[in-house]
Every structure is written in C-alpha cells, then in structure tokens.
UniProtKB/TrEMBL annotation:
Belongs to the sodium:solute symporter (SSF) (TC 2.A.21) family. It comes from Mumia flava. Keywords: Membrane, Transmembrane, Transmembrane helix. It is a multi-pass membrane protein. Signal peptide: none annotated. One of its GO terms (molecular function) is D-glucose:sodium symporter activity. It is found in: Membrane. It holds the Pfam family SSF. GO terms for cellular component: plasma membrane. This is SSS family solute:Na+ symporter. The chain crosses the membrane at residues 25-42, 62-83, 95-116, 137-162, 168-187, 199-217, 254-274, 305-325, 356-383, 404-426, 432-454, 461-479, 558-575.
Amino acid sequence: MNAMHLDSVLLAQEELRLDADFSDYLIIAIYFGFVLGIGWFAKRQVSSSIDFFLSGRSLPAWVTGLAFISANLGAVEIMGMSANGAQYGLPTMHYFWIGAVPAMLFLGVVMMPFYYGSKVRSVPEFMRMRFGTGAHLVNALSFAIAQLLIAGVNLFLLASIVEAILGWPLWVSLIAAAAVVLTYTTLGGLSAAIYNEVLQFFVIVAALLPLTLVALHKVGGIDGLVDKLQAEPDGDAMLSSWPGTNLTGIEDPFWSVVGIVFGLGFVLSFGYWTTNFVEVQRAMASKSMSAARNAPIIGSFPKMFVPFIVVVPGMIAAVLVTEIIQLRNGELPPDSDVTYNDAILLLMRDLLPNGMLGVAIAGLLASFMAGMAANISAFNTVFSVDLWEQYAVKDKPDDYYTRVGRWATVAATLVAIFTALIASGYGNLMDYLQTLFGFFNAPLFATFILGMFWKRMSATAGWVGLVSGTGAAIFVAILSEDALGGLSQGVIGLSGQGASFVAASAAFVVDIVVSVVVTYMSKPKPEESLVGFVYSLTPKENLRDPLAPTLPWYQQPLKLATISLIMVIALNIIFR
C-alpha cells in the first residue's frame, strides 16, 4: 500500500468516525446481549430439522409478518436506499410503493396457499416437484450463490459500522461482525433469526425515527428541505417521483416510466418478493394457512412507511452533509473515499448527541445483522435440503441434516467475508444488488409464474428457460455502462439501476419465449402429478384455510390486502 493510498484510507476513516462514548457502547453491548440471549433460548426449541429450518411451522402471523419485513430491512433498505435518496431523491420511493407492496400482496393472496399447502421446505423444493430435478438444481445453485453474494453486502456494511465506531481495520471488523451473526444463527436456526428480526425491527425504528426528526428540524422542516432541494440543479427531479429519469438513466420520460413499472414494479419486484426464499421462508414458518398468507400482507403496512425514515434522511444528507454536497457537485477532494453509501452515517455523525448516537448505531447494526442472518438462514436450508440431502447424502437420520445445516451456516459466513470485499467496490450498492436480482430473481419469476398458470409447460422448459433468462440478464449487463462495477465498456449506453431494470426485463422476456418454444418441443408432465402446483388443477379447497371465515376481519387476508392496496395507491398519488 503506497503512502498516498494510506493517507486516503486514513482520511476516509476520519471522515466517518462516529464520536461514540461510554453510554453509546453500553447501549450497543446491551443490544448484543439480547441478540445472543435470543439465540441461546431458541436453541432449546430445536429438536428436529423442521424446527431448525422452518421453526416447526409454529409462529403467529404478527411475528412472521414483522420478521418478513425485517429480513429485508438490511443493507438494501438502510444504506442502499438512503444512498439512493441522497443521489436521486423521491424517485427512490418506487422501490417501496411500486417495487414492493403490490408484489407482497400478490404473494399473500395468490402464491402462499401453494407454498404452504404443498408442505415444501423451500422454494427450490417447490420447483423440483413442479418441474423436476433440472430446474430444481439450477434454481438451488443460483439461489445459494446469490445469498452468499448478498450476505457479503450486509456483512460489509456491518463491518463498516464497526470500523467507523472503533477504527478497526476492515478485515478485523468483518470477522468480528460475522462472528456475532454466526453464533446466534448456528445456535437457534430460523427461530433465532426470526425472533431477532422482530427485536431488530423495533430497534431500527427506534434508531431511524429520531434521526429523521432531528434532521428535519435541522434543515427547517419539510418546507426547508423542499426549498434547499429546489435550489439544486436537479432539484425538480429529486422532488418528483415520476418519471424518474434520474433514477433509471433513461432520458425519454415514457420509457423511463415503462422501465420503472415493468422492469422494477413487475419483473424485479414480483421476482424478488414472490420467489425469493429469504422472504418466503418467514411466511412458511407460520402456524396456519391464514397466518402464512397474512405474513407478507402484515409486512406491507410498515413497508410502505419505511421510506420516510430511510429515503428522507438521505435526501436531507444531500443538502446538509458537507461531503455529500461536495460529492453531488463533483467537488469532493481527490483523496476522499466518501460515497453515497455513507450518507446516513455522515448524517448521524453530524446531528446525533451521545446516547442517541448509541441507539442509532445499534439500529444500523440490527439492520445489517437482520439482512445477513436472513441470507444465511435461507442458504443453510437450501444447501441442506435441496443440495446435500437431494444430491449428495440421502436417507440419513433427521438430526444429521440439522448438523449439516449448522455447518452450512459456518461455511456461508466464512464465504460472506470474501464476498463482502466484492461489495466494497461499489459506490452505490443498489446498483450491485439490482444487478444480482436481475440475474437470479427475474428469470425464476418467469419460470415460476408460467408454470403455475400453464399446465402444459414441461420440465425441460423449466430449466432451459431459467438458464436462458439468466444468460440474457448477464449479456445485457455486460453491454451496459458500469453495470458490473466498471468491468464493462458500455455498448448500449445504460448504467446503474436503469441497466438492471432492462437486464431484468430481458431475462423475463427471454425466459418466457424460450420456455414456450421448448415446451412445444418436449413432453409435459402428467396432470395428476401437478395437483397442488398448477392453479387450474388444484381444488380450491386446498388453497383455503377452513377456519378463515371464523377469523375477525383484521386476520382475513383478502380484507387486509385490500386496505393495504388502497393505502399504497394513495401514497403514490400524494407523492407523485
């Protein structure tokens, strides 16, 4: 490491150093005590593999609903969305109101009855029973790789907080942060992850809500924020969610809207929320069909209000934090490593007093641990159930696969330390994450939704479509400017999140077209084997909870989903 680079690193650490004192460290220590205590308590409830991987399918809807949203309230939400808020402004709201809530409602109303009713242990296992081992193996491998990469994002940001507090080298911070998540996830499996996610949800809100209120007061309230943003060269774009050309990088307003609605709102969003086992696993841990359907619907209510404590602080940082202002104006000193990912950290540094700073730091640590634990717990299930048990070692006693799950947790955590170094190379982590989602989730959703509603679709089409769709997304990413972190030359003139929207759209369309062509060239599965996996062949009573009509209105999925949909439409209109 040369002297100039060393000076740059030291300056960046100094810029991000949070002036924590004893009271802050005490709050953080108490929080970690609770986290590890929950892991130890959950270990006592693990007596079988279904307990370790799916919490024995015994949890109430409010617990799985909060865990459902908290599992996603990690690096993407806190650092990625605050970075987007600082860089793009209100168009970032699309990730919540267009790119999350509608898909969550669709999962609860339409798809959870298939997942829960089939009694599968994972989404890839559902794919195996619908399409056979070809699609299953492709899905299980791609999902496992994706979780290791995304766990690295959460671990990198978790280590960044430790580095900012203590000044430790990044590699030491990575190992220390990984050790905590590894301990409680290995001890208690999914139950430990879920109960910690519920705790983490409240800690995150307790951290970010005061930060938002203090920041709004500092900037002069909503009116002050609007006035300061309007004075910026791109102020109008930052204060209007549509057409979002600054977010997509697509200059034409019409095609920018198409990219948001189709690429983000349909392909990426539905692909992520309805087929991503990280999220679905939480709902599958519920104690009944109605509870499983309600989990994502309950989660949709806090989800639609999360941007007010994540995106808005990022927008405030864009006009209040010196380094972010310099970054936006291209005036950042050449020896500074500050990026948009640092927006919320710098805001905390500038605004929060000790004590409140400790709560905020605990909230950030909670969010990153929630995200990483969700990735790791989903990975250990898919590795153990879908890869090891299915293809490596079959017909072993139940406790053998529980042990395999624990060892998979250890291995995944170690790998995440290295994938964290990949994430460290991105100035805006949303670019990286959306690229990954385009590779892995968009083609899976195409295969999944076509197979669920078209009984003719063949097993061969399942795996060929997945491979073709993933290849199409990678091809578009290679042709895009900076879509792979600057590794490509940029043939089609798109960069960042706009490129990921186009890549995801290409993956979806190619997967559908290839699947249809291959289906008519191959033999379909017998209809009797598709009951419970294809909508038209499944008796409607199999998709309903017989006790649902006796539940109060606030526990009935359709009524809750209708209320949520009306609310999110209203938010889209108000902040258009």
